[in-house]
Specification:
heterodimer; A: 227 residues; mainly alpha; 8 helices; B: mainly alpha; Methane Monooxygenase Hydroxylase, Chain G, domain 1; 73% helix; nucleus (chain A); Translin_N (chain A); Translin (chain A)
């Protein structure tokens, strides 16, 4: 092993460092969008249900523009090194998954699927090995959704929407049942999953309060909580 | 009829959808966890076998029956036996290579990294004994390839550098244990120069590779130990007459206060 070999390795590592810098630039754009969207969506706690569609529409262009960033990242990542670089954008991506899932629930009352997230962000099949949405990142985003919905259950009541806690309760219980199907190991996913039961409990308390005072529209829920 | 009823119940169809989707996620996560666990086990086996190889090399090099003057032959012989016992480890790498193809390599790189580094250390040790030189990256990558020359996986620079950085610690141990013989002192000087070169060459990688900084500190302390060992074993210094230190008399009240202390040797202060 002589100096020339070390120089070769050094040059390769230098190249890698350059790539990391370039990726960092692209990822920071995605990060900014992720944060700004979450900031906007935070307003749901103070927005009457009737005005939610308008609020959601304001972030649609930002969601659309994320496609440019995912494309830019995918074009930078060398083939078959997805898992080497993924840590750089995992958090931003989890935030985006959360936002998309929240919008989908508020609009349609259903869970956004992983393929739907991929499609919304313009992720292409041929990017495999360079950029995909990892299941764990998707699931992390969905756990954030449950955290957020337990807040919304409380705040919707404050804003006079007494049926929202019932819709949220059914949905969150379904999600909880879904997460219970997973055999999680002792990692961050497991820790966050363990926290979900407190969210479920909090929502149940709101549902209990509202039913006790008979504030909800009887057809909207009531018997659903039995299921 | 049945399905219409189910669908009319709000929530039910969405629950089915969610359960179906999560069934898929479970399968995917289970597969990942299972593979990671299996690779962790193999990585641990590789680590422990590599450690055994290193011990074997130490034993062969410091065997009292080694004939003085035959150092080159002893080293070459030790390296050969070392390589032989490494064949088993190579088999383990080959057995997991299928799990580490393409995109999967970087998914499990952290899982196999400890075993990989330990093996590079062992192989680097044998290589040093054989060639008196540092194991080149290309040689290591070639070793991790099948007969057709297809690599089992792309050897990361970080694992290579961190592995050979650990080698300096083993060389330190070898240098210290052999410093008591005349040939060993020559050897210790060689190793000392070698480790010093390694330390200098690795310095540029410290900011680029996570963990390198810590390794450099260890290498520095190994280097100091070899230098100290060399100095202590150096004949001129050993034979030099160093005047004995004269201990100063402890204060009187101190001695009387502690009467239970055993009496001091009488010739202590007289010399």
């Amino acid at each position: 092993m002589d100096e020339k070999d070390f120089e070769e390795i050094s040059a390769q590592l230098e190249q890698e460092a350059n790539l990391r810098e370039k990726l960092k630039d692209e990822v920071s754009k995605l990060e900014q969008k992720s944060r700004s969207m979450q900031g906007t969506m935070n307003k749901i706690h103070a927005t009457p249900t009737s005005q939610l569609p308008r609020l959601i529409n304001t972030i649609k262009p930002v969601v659309e523009s994320c496609k440019e960033d995912t494309r830019a990242i995918a074009s930078l990542v060398p083939p078959n090194t997805y898992w080497k670089w993924k840590y750089m954008w995992a958090q931003a991506l989890q935030g985006i998954v959360f936002t998309l899932a929240l919008c989908k629930f508020l609009e349609e009352g259903t869970l956004i699927t992983l393929p739907e997230v991929s499609k919304t962000l313009g992720v292409e099949e041929e990017w495999k090995g360079r950029f995909t949405i990892a299941t764990e990142d998707y699931l992390q985003g969905i756990i954030s959704l449950v955290n957020e919905l337990s807040r919304l259950a409380v705040n919707a009541v404050t804003l006079g929407d007494f049926d929202a806690p019932f819709r949220i309760s059914v949905f969150v219980k379904d999600l909880f049942a879904g997460f219970s199907l997973l055999n999680l190991k002792n990692d961050s996913l497991r820790k966050r999953f363990d926290s979900l039961k407190y969210d479920v409990k909090r929502i149940e308390e709101v549902v209990y309060d509202v039913s006790l005072r008979k504030l909800n529209t009887p057809t909207a829920g009531g018997d659903e909580t039995m299921s | 009829m049945m399905t219409a009823e189910v669908q009319s119940m709000p929530g039910s169809s969405s629950r089915d959808g969610i359960m179906g989707a999560f069934d898929g996620y479970r399968e995917e996560l289970d597969e990942y966890y299972d593979r990671r666990e299996a690779l962790t086990k193999v990585s641990r086996d590789i680590t422990s076998l590599s450690k055994k190889c290193i011990f074997l090399l130490h034993r062969l090099m410091t065997d009292p029956s080694n004939k003085p003057g035959n150092e080159r032959e002893t080293s070459a012989n030790a390296a050969k036996k070392g390589y032989e016992s490494m064949e088993q480890i190579k088999g383990l790498f080959e057995s997991i290579s299928e799990q580490l193809q393409g995109n999967d390599f970087w998914r499990f790189q952290r899982t196999v990294s400890p075993g990989l580094q330990e093996f590079i250390e062992a192989y680097g040790f044998a290589y040093y004994l054989e060639h008196n030189a540092l194991l080149p990256y290309d040689k290591m990558q070639t070793y991790f390839s099948n007969d057709a020359g297809v690599p089992y996986f792309p050897l990361p620079y970080s694992d290579y550098l961190l592995g050979i950085s650990d080698l300096t610690g083993e060389l330190m141990r070898y240098a210290i244990s052999s410093v008591t013989t005349r040939a060993g002192r020559v050897k210790a000087r060689e190793i000392c120069d070698f480790v010093r070169d390694c330390r200098a060459s690795f310095e540029v990688f410290a900011p680029r590779i996570r963990g390198m900084d810590q390794k450099q500190k260890t290498t520095t302390s190994s280097l100091r130990k070899i230098e100290d060992g060399k100095r202590r074993a150096h004949p001129p210094l050993l034979s030099a007459r160093v005047p004995p230190l004269t201990p100063c008399q402890p204060p009187m009240q101190c001695r009387s206060a502690n009467t239970s202390m055993p009496p001091r040797p009488t010739d202590w202060t007289s010399s």
